[in-house]
From TrEMBL:
This is Nucleotidyltransferase family protein. Residues 15-177 form the MobA-like NTP transferase domain. Pfam families: NTP_transf_3 (PF12804). Gene3D superfamilies: Spore Coat Polysaccharide Biosynthesis Protein SpsA, Chain A.
Length: 204
């Protein structure tokens, strides 16, 4: 089920937040609901996308999706349920891209809910790399590719066809490496994931 919100106008690039993870190594605590600055982490991630320049934001939910809907304030977001979230991030990416079909978006800026150290400056830098529906761009951290990733609409079908398990767009991007615009963000962001109990120290 998809809950529609306002789409922020006809901005060519939509924010796509993958927030379905169940936090298996965190004792089964959904990452979207981890506390950060006194609120669910998913709220922070949405705010980063908006402040970075994304008018329309789609959020893919999975683990305890109904609880996320009830506890997190996500006004004007399009909430997309991914019933197959336990099969890996690839299913969330496919669900998110499918939800953008027909919206007029010409690119998706993909970010992950469990990277609180990536702020609006990194989002804005990668967003600025958009040129056409054929654009591909990725944040890099001291030369290593990471998130957020900008996927032009011309690539969505190819990405969806190769997004399996926890690989997301990795296989597709590897095949099209020469077409990716790298956007260095290591000076403004920390791409650390919240995967284990020790990683919770990165939350505030």
């Amino acid at each position: 089920m998809t809950t529609r919100g306002t789409d922020g106008g006809r901005a060519p690039v939509a924010g796509l937040l993958l927030a379905a993870g169940g936090g298996r190594r965190l004792g089964g605590r959904p990452k979207a609901l981890l506390a950060h600055r006194g609120r669910p982490l998913v709220e922070h991630a949405v705010r980063v996308l908006r402040e970075g320049g994304c008018g329309r934001v789609h959020v893919v939910l999975g683990a305890r999706a109904q609880e996320v809907r009830e506890r997190a304030a996500l006004p004007s977001c399009v909430l997309v349920d991914n019933p197959g979230w336990e099969q890996g991030m690839g299913t969330s990416l496919r669900a998110g891209l499918e939800s953008l079909a027909g919206t007029g978006a010409r690119a998706a800026l993909v970010s992950l809910v469990d990277q609180p150290g990536i702020g609006e400056q990194a989002v804005a830098r990668v967003l600025a790399a958009y040129r056409t529906a054929d654009s591909l761009a990725s944040a890099t951290y001291h030369g290593v590719r990471g998130h957020p990733v900008l996927l032009g609409a011309a690539h969505w079908a190819g990405v969806a066809a190769t997004a399996t398990g926890d690989r997301g767009a990795r296989a597709y991007l590897r095949e099209h490496e020469e077409r990716i615009t790298p956007v260095e963000c290591g000076d403004v962001a920390d791409p650390h994931d919240i995967d284990t109990e020790a990683d919770l120290a990165h939350l505030e």
